[in-house]
Design goal:
Length: 259
């Protein structure tokens, strides 16, 4: 596939999304970057502009489907979107005092991570289908394969994204629109800063962006990394549950509130 020239990234104000934006930023490339924190978003936009890319930003909450459509409709009209990366997400889970997430938190995580990603996907899909061309990438997690005891809603949201993405990919197999699902392990970001526990094989956001872009160029169904953790997560889905819990016991964590 030719390198994409018109790319939208949700959750581009920080971490993996910001690193993906800077990875693709180059002369001749237009990036549509969204996030809620406009100060951080503008800082990423300035760095991407310095690399020669054209940038449009929008301070949007992914839960607001109407705002996403209002930003993407004129954006797509002037720069037909070739690649949409639905990356925005939050991690909530067990607190330091051992409290398990409540119902309101669980709902919020699923609204952002799962329904928010679908808002971005469905704001993009009709135009891509009309052109019979384009790629949509959903950023899930290895937690989609091996649910995290300390983050039930996060795990459910990521499993939902994986399932939705692979089903839609198959449904669109005969078309020019391709879907990929990204399943990262631990990546250094504000999210992993709030995750207090073991983080084996952690990689930088820049390395994650490189692996994600490589998987996108190959139109992979699942872009899972690092390889050893990805294989371990796949295996964990087929071993007896008591064994999976035993193997993941050392991975328990709690989530610190974000500053
Ligand atoms: N880091 C890891 O180890 C890891 C592993 C597996 C999967 N992931 C996934 O990778 C994605 C990026 O995470 P990250 O590690 O880069 O974390 P991060 O640094 O906290 O970045 C999260 C991004 O999502 C945006 N966001 C959060 N809630 C939003 C909302 N309601 N509306 C719009 N934007 C929102 C944030 O922007 P604002 O705060 O400006 O809104 C920020 O740009 C997430 O989907 C995460 O689940 C990360």
């Amino acid at each position: 596939m030719n390198a994409p020239r018109s790319i939208v990234i949700t959750g581009a104000s920080s971490g993996i999304g910001a690193a993906i934006a800077l990875h693709y930023a180059a002369p001749g490339v237009t990036l549509g970057l969204t996030g809620r924190n406009t100060e951080r978003l503008e800082a990423v936009a300035a760095s991407a502009r310095a690399k020669g890319a054209m940038i449009e930003t929008a301070g949007i909450d992914v839960r607001n489907a109407e705002s996403i459509v209002a930003f993407l409709t004129p954006f797509d009209a002037s720069h037909p979107i070739e690649l949409m990366i639905a990356n925005a997400g939050v991690l909530e889970g067990r607190s330091a005092d051992g409290t398990i997430e409540d119902g309101a938190t669980a709902r919020r995580v699923i609204e952002i991570n799962l329904l928010g990603a679908l808002n971005a996907l469905h704001a993009t899909l009709p135009a891509m289908r009309a052109r019979n061309r384009g790629q949509i990438v959903l950023v899930s997690s290895l937690a989609a394969f091996s649910p995290l005891t300390d983050a039930p809603a996060y795990s459910a949201s990521k499993a939902g994204l994986l399932s939705y993405g692979l089903a839609l990919r198959a449904a669109l197999a005969d078309t020019g629109v391709k879907i990929s699902v990204v399943c990262p392990g631990y990546v250094a970001s504000a999210m992993t800063d709030s995750h207090i526990g073991e983080q084996p094989m952690k990689i930088s956001a820049e390395e994650a962006a490189r692996l994600i872009a490589r998987g996108i160029a190959r139109q992979q169904a699942v872009i899972g990394f690092p390889k050893a953790l990805y294989l371990g997560s796949l295996m964990s889905a087929i071993i007896p549950e008591p064994l999976r819990l035993l193997f993941t016991k050392s991975m328990r964590f709690h989530v610190e509130p974000r500053r």
